[in-house]
Amino acid sequence: MDYEKIADEVSKKIYSYSQDTTGWKKLKTSRDVLVSWKSSNDYLGSMKQVCLFLSSNPRYRGEGIVEETPERIIPFLYLPEYRSKWDKALESYSIVEQVNKDTFISQSLTHSYGMGLISPREFIDLIHVKRYDGGVITTNSISVECAKCPPSTSYVRGYNNPCGYICSPLPENPAHCKFVVFIQPELGGLLPRSVVESALPNNVVGLVNDVRIGLKKYLP
Question: Mean pLDDT across the chain, nearest whole number?
């Protein structure tokens, strides 16, 4: 598997999402985080069958302001010494293979949620960090196969279609940044539609706020 080629392709996808400003439908605003969605043509998975109010496979976008610079936020998002502390959705998180300086493979094991209706999931993701002009930094990821992480009977194997974080410094206050999250997961298994519909937007809000809280608590 050509991980570097995949990393380049998913980075282009996430950048194209960041430039796409039309057709987004507001789902909710909570704790200064706006969550929107639009149909995605990038996957044909089970999400189409488990979402009541979405006409096709959804791409979720969450956005808010974070009081830090991209250079400090981005490592905080993916390095295990930080991620395992701030991300409340995860039972464990580790980097299982380094592809190159800016590209690696991670294993994420989630807690159950939705009052136990969604059992623990495992995601094996290729992650690539990319820098752009103007101080913008992104993480770009997609689920991949990895020989070091065969499927486990203890976790349902989920799949992340192109997803990532985009950190852009605010021109009026470079010490803060606009923080944007894109997710479009396939959770796998048989799930109640109502649980999925409520869980994913809430998870986006929780993630942004976990980052905000974690930065103040754990970043020196």
Answer: 89
Helix locations, the chain, DSSP H: 3-19, 47-50, 70-78, 80-86, 193-218
Q: What pLDDT, on the 0 to 100 scale, is given for residue 187?
A: 83
Q: How confident is the model at residue 55 (pLDDT cuts 50, 70, 90)?
A: very low
Count of domains in the chain?
A: 1
Q: pTM for the full model? A: 0.90
Q: Please state, in angstroms and rounded to a whole number, the distance separating the CA atoms of residues 175 and 170.
A: 8
Contact criterion met (CB below 8 Å) for 184 and 59:
yes
CA distance 180 to 166: 5
Each residue's pLDDT tens digit, 85-102: 999 999 999 999 999 999
Domain of 11 in residue numbering reads as 3-218
Q: Is 210 exposed, middle or buried (0-12, 13-18, 19+ CB in 10 A)?
A: middle
- In b/e form, how buried is each residue of 10-28, taking b as 16+ CB within 10 angstroms? bbebbbebbeeeeeeeebe
